[in-house]
Amino acid sequence: MRIGVLALQGAFIEHEQVLARLGAEAVEVRLPRDLDGLDGLIIPGGESTTIGKLAVHYQLMEPLREMARTGKAMWGTCAGLIFMAKDVGRDQPLLGLMDVTVERNAFGRQVDSFEANLSIKGVDGDQPFHAIFIRAPLIEAVGKGVEVLARAEKNHRDVIVAARQGNLLVTSFHPELSSDDRFHRYFLQMAKAGLRTA
User: Fold this and answer.
1) What are the pLDDT tens digits along the chain (198 aa)?
2) Is 156 in the active site?
3) Chain centroid to CA 61: how far?
4) Of 14, 16, 103, 176, which residue is the catalytic one?
5) Is 176 a residue of the active site?
6) Known catalytic membership, residue 78
7) How many CA atoms lie within 13 A of 19 on its CB side?
8) Which of 44, 68, 142, 179 has its CA 20 to 30 A from that of 98?
9) Which of 15, 103, 174, 184 is catalytic?
10) Helices (H) and strands (E) in the chain, counts
11) pTM score, two decimals?
């Protein structure tokens, strides 16, 4: 299985390391031609505005949208979630693929980073997933066809931090920084399912 990791900016190496441990081939994506022959793509955390501007500069926007339209699995973590969203409440380059409204930096600044144990729908195992949040966004609203996978607590209310819409997956947190590889396994299963339906 060949999984691309968008390597324009941000925490792409950590995703590559987890994929390698799981026996998948990780391919760094910087140009449209790097998308050829991929079974799925991860858009990592980092700075969403920078990732968007670089994707525009390297003419990746439409090829990324086309990859998603063909049913290939795509997963955005943290900044990747913002980049994949339809609405983030401000003007910046977005793929606009997933019918979610996102609040950037919803949990505060770097010093407000935190960890939480989450129950995640569809992820195997009886143990909660230990999630790491760094300047994390949250999902304020989801459209029809978007499945909520996980929630976390913010100011005494539950907020959405992971969701799926068909072949598209997003998380507010950073599974690549955890020793728990279940989320990456879940994504690889999505990628395999996408190959069967493509």
Assistant:
1) 999 999 999 889 999 999 999 999 999 999 999 999 999 999 999 899 999 999 999 999 999 999 999 999 999 999 999 999 999 988 899 999 999 999 876 555 555 578 889 999 888 777 899 999 888 888 999 999 999 999 988 766 788 999 999 999 999 999 999 889 999 999 999 999 876 655
2) no
3) 16
4) 176
5) yes
6) yes
7) 24
8) 179
9) 174
10) 5, 12
11) 0.93
Tokens describing residue 2: 């060949």
Fold of the domain built from segment(s) 2-197:
Rossmann fold (3.40.50)
Q: Identify the active-site residue in 14, 78, 103, 184.
A: 78
Which secondary-structure segment (H or E) carries 37? none
How is the chain split into domains, by residue range? 2-197
Q: Are 87 and 13 in contact (CB under 8 A)?
A: no
Residue 147, strand partner residues: 164
Q: For residue 62, give the 3-state DSSP assignment.
A: helix
